[in-house]
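The protein record filed here:
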Amino acid sequence: MYQVLYRKWRPKRFADVVGQPHVTRTLLNELRGGHIAHAYLFTGSRGTGKTTCAKILSKAVNCLSPVDGDPCGECENCRGIDDGSILDVIEIDAASNNGVDNIRDLREEANYTPARAKYRVYIIDEVHMLSTGAFNALLKTLEEPPEHVIFILATTEVHKLPATILSRCQRFDFHRIPPEEIAGRLQYVAEQEQISLTEGAALMLARLADGAMRDALSLLDRCAGRGEEITEQLVSETTGMAGRDYLYTLSDAAARGDSGAAVAAIDDLHNGSCDMSTLAAELLGHYRNMMIIKTAKEPEKLIVCTADELESLRREAGRFTLDQILYNLDLLQRTLENIRRGADRRTELEMALIRMCTPALSEGLSALEARISTLERKLAAGIPAPAAPAVSTAEASPAAAEPALPAETAQPQPRVQPESELPPPPETQSAPAPSAPPQDVPFDRWNEVIESLMKTTPALVPLLNGSSANLRGMRVLIRSTNPVLAKLLRQNGYVSALNEAIRTVTGQNYKAAVYSTPAPAANQAADPLTGLLEKMDSAGVSYTVE
């Protein structure tokens, strides 16, 4: 029966373990000196040799003829442990045996002396899966086991282990194996198996394995099934790295700001049964590669791809600034989190692509940086920025050229415009009324601010009836037919309430101000409220607006 490569080429002695010299050297020294601990903890990412070293250690402590600390592999005990005929070495999967009863049975068995071996060895794999009760049941035995018992715990998530367990074990941390060492091992195995493997293909497989020797051997097994010489191109085709043109289609739409093309591409992929979560993860990796190209001096060492694909990525990365790439990465990461929480996958990804095409639709610092970066690129290329829409003459009041001081900093007594400075009546006015400054743009969320005030400060809403607002820098300039609006806003902390409502709606710390309004002409009827307020001000009478 065919045996897969990672099982066939599992190391039999410590010298064959790749990439963990700090572990194997220490274990060999302990075995040579006879300083064997009663409990070991092997931690590290998948495929780095934890279970392999545990099995080698279990044979080494029971070997009848050890060779410089290593098991001989030929004696009765070594062969019995390999073929499973010696039952004194027990391997337990904690993922499926994680209850209190399982650990109680183990604790009772540990009291019996070994049948054939010198030590009874318990290898508990994925030990972090044990329940709290199981850990508690294991504590006393783990701290003071019988002299003939050795525990070897292995886990990929050491942070989930209780501190009481960690303190009772001798800990060894297994590192990710460097790609160069994995590639060397792959070429050795390929040579022994008479597989044609190029040096570039071996290095690509090593990088795809992400530091795991087992994964690298599994990938080599898949590529060898093609029955051809294993080259970089064949690895790319076998592992699914080739044929990802749709990622470039989506990033091209984002670079051009064409949200319609992005949504159409997602529709095509969805109709082709593409999983939206997987697509979002692949697109995240695509932008991660462009980020590496923008920042690393030697990106080819950090990106797993062929030389042609690397050049394509360089060209695509040239269409984005680093700020834009970081904004897209942040947006895709949040989209993946939303998808995992059960949101509609297609809708979430479509929303993300539309925001990537149009950063102005998003709020936050990263979106603002992306928009500024886009503007800088356009200005550098000689593309003029679009002009802000001007406020029509009909909307602007004759004295709207200068805004009034913010209500919270204005003087207590507003200036009354004398008759000599009043504009001529409309029928005799020769020049058109001046409009608002050209940098003012309409504040299209003013109605939302008023709705927010209805919930927090309803007494302020009637004062703003019929009003509108423009943006000028970080100010919201209010235009109203109420001539004493600025005076009324100074009452009862209305300015603070208005600023808070604007911040709630926009997320920005805008300050409210009021356009200056001319006094009524002599032939116009005076507003009774205005006259009353002026009389109260002159008399020094305090009042409150309800």
Residues 419 and 522 are 8 Å apart (CA to CA). The chain has 22 helices and nine strands.
